[in-house]
Amino acid sequence: MHPLFHVPSTEVTLDLVQDFINLKIRESLTVEYKRAGDKPIEAVAALANTYGGLLFVGVDEGEKGVPSEIRGVPLGEKEKLVNQMGTGFDPPWSPEVIEVPCNEQGDKVVLVVRIDRATVPRPIVLNGSIFVRLDARNEKANRQMMRMLLDDPNSQPEPRPSTAMRGLNSHESPFRHDANDPDVVLRAVSVMKLWKGEERTRFPSGLAAGVIQALHGTRAHPLLSRLGLDLVGGGQVVTTPWQLVDATSRRLRLRMSTCGTDGSAPSRPGAQMICTVSLAGGEPASELEVLFDTAVWLLDGIPLGLDYFLQVFYDSVPIVANMLLPLVAEATVGLKAMPTPVTEIHAAAGDIPNEYGDPTDSSLEDVVSMTSLGQRVGGRSISQGGEVLLRSLVDPPRWDEAVREALVTMAMDWGFPEPKFP
What does the pLDDT average to over 68-76? Predict the structure, then answer.
């Protein structure tokens, strides 16, 4: 996803806008360009009532909706547009409108309007009409479209779940409750709901190759190699490449391990990363879901360091939310811009076999070094934990801060009143 979709408004520069224009992305369901003199308010309403996206005001377009040149609009156009939206929209609402100077004289600007569908009180009515985005044009909604918008339970700003729903013991669990289970698994998961009418029954063919290519460009392999080296105490560690180990029309599962040339569960000590991409939420599917699990097999008596516990989340959350989910969304439903996804993190300890080989419950304190978190109070079990990342910290994304805030909340729920992470 281009940085223009998510960087803070203070970091939106003319160079960044020009970089986007140079990509020659055609007008689409989620991108539109308006010349000086055009009326952009209908485009704002249409994008808001559909998938959201980016609107550029002051950009000429060439053939077939391809942007050609930044010409800008006079100073004062931002205030004019904001006032029009304030008086013309029912209910009153305004998206983020960023003013970017675009000439040396300082009398011209290009407006970048960012519309996050999750914040829109839909349907937005403009002067008695409801506009929607159809392909690369704005149209007044017919009766059927109006009924869909009015009946759509997502027509109000999307609620953010307060409880993490995709825990390691209840959803796509990596635990088999036998002696080969990992000692601890850390999960990052990101989910995007599909709009009514855009549900899917299958993934497009060729998606697996795109996911594998994207994974090769992430920090996953360096993290796995470094983790593997520390687990064995130095020397050399063999890692398998990302391998597609399961595939259906609605689900892909990929795996990379520090040990085992066939990609199977590594011997102790070792680590493995498992990425699962799914169409979820019924038939046809109404959600896109990306899971990223990091499973660790420890040497007896040596817990996972808290620094690695943190680093796995710091690296895996951007992989699912900022790279893989946008890729899967664009391939599946054609979105180049998308609502802020719901992103969760989870941690769980595996069962420990007793002297007879039967699995017994274990605690995260046994497998993750938590002494630096401080004194724990209460006797509650901490075999697992999960938390939803705060929306305010993921849109625009501040991943490390969002992860740390979620982990502090998780640690407090475990009984650490003043957790101190490194």
Answer: 93
